[in-house]
């Protein structure tokens, strides 16, 4: 049986010794043997890791379908702000999946537009919030915008916010 040392201090065999090691190596200074508690503070907490971001800012789009994928890994709440403009009709639908394939576009998605946001589709400026909690178990969403009747002048922006 080997000997354990801490900072050149010999610990005899048979003595109990509690070691705390940080990811950076070495004994952790966060351990307080007096209160037997670990102290930790987060400089960058998990809820600050992902801020709302622009998924799409399209201009000069013709008839067709545009697909956007958003990873929801560990997120429980989502909102989408959709601002269509220009010519033609633009129809937004949202699909969700619980699959975990690393390739977001390869997953099988199901239409959750009505269940999550209360309408079968959206064609005007909209703020969509999943107040029913339908997407809490989803691992990703697929946002689809279908354009019809446009003369290469359809525009839209799509912003997504995620929270724990």
Key traits:
single chain; 164 residues; mainly beta; Jelly Rolls; 2 domains
What is this structure, in a nutshell?
The protein is mainly beta. Helix content is 3%, strand content 43%. The protein has one helix and twelve strands.
Largest sheet: 4 strands, antiparallel
How many beta-strand elements? 12
Query: What is the CATH third-level topology name of the largest domain?
Result: Jelly Rolls
CATH C-level label of the largest domain: Mainly Beta
Topology overview:
Elements: E1 4-6, E2 9-11, E3 31-32, E4 37-38, E5 53-61, E6 64-71, E7 77-86, E8 89-97, E9 110-111, H1 113-117, E10 126-129, E11 140-148, E12 154-163
Antiparallel strand pairs: 1-2, 3-4, 5-12, 6-11, 7-10, 7-12, 8-9, 8-11
Describe this structure in words.
The structure is a single chain. This protein has 164 residues and is mainly β. It has two domains: 1-41, no CATH class; 46-163, Jelly Rolls (Sandwich), CATH 2.60.120.380. Helices cover 3% and strands 43% of the residues. The chain has one helix at 113-117; strands spanning 4-6, 9-11, 31-32, 37-38, 53-61, 64-71, 77-86, 89-97, 110-111, 126-129, 140-148, 154-163. Strand 3 and strand 4 form a beta hairpin.
């Amino acid at each position: 049986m080997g000997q354990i040392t801490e900072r050149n201090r010999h610990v005899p065999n048979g003595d109990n010794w509690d070691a705390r090691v940080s990811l950076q190596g070495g004994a952790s200074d966060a351990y307080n043997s007096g209160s037997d508690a670990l102290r930790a503070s987060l400089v960058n907490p998990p809820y600050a890791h992902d801020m709302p971001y622009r998924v799409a800012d399209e201009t000069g789009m013709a008839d067709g379908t545009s697909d956007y994928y958003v990873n929801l890994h560990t997120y429980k709440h989502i909102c989408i702000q959709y601002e269509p403009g220009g010519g033609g009709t633009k129809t937004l639908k949202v699909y969700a999946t619980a699959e975990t394939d690393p390739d977001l576009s390869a997953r099988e998605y199901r239409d959750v537009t009505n269940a999550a946001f209360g309408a079968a589709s959206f064609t005007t400026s909209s703020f969509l919030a999943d107040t029913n909690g339908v997407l809490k178990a989803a691992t990703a969403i697929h946002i689809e915008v279908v354009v019809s009747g446009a003369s290469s002048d359809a525009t839209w922006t799509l912003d997504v916010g995620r929270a724990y």
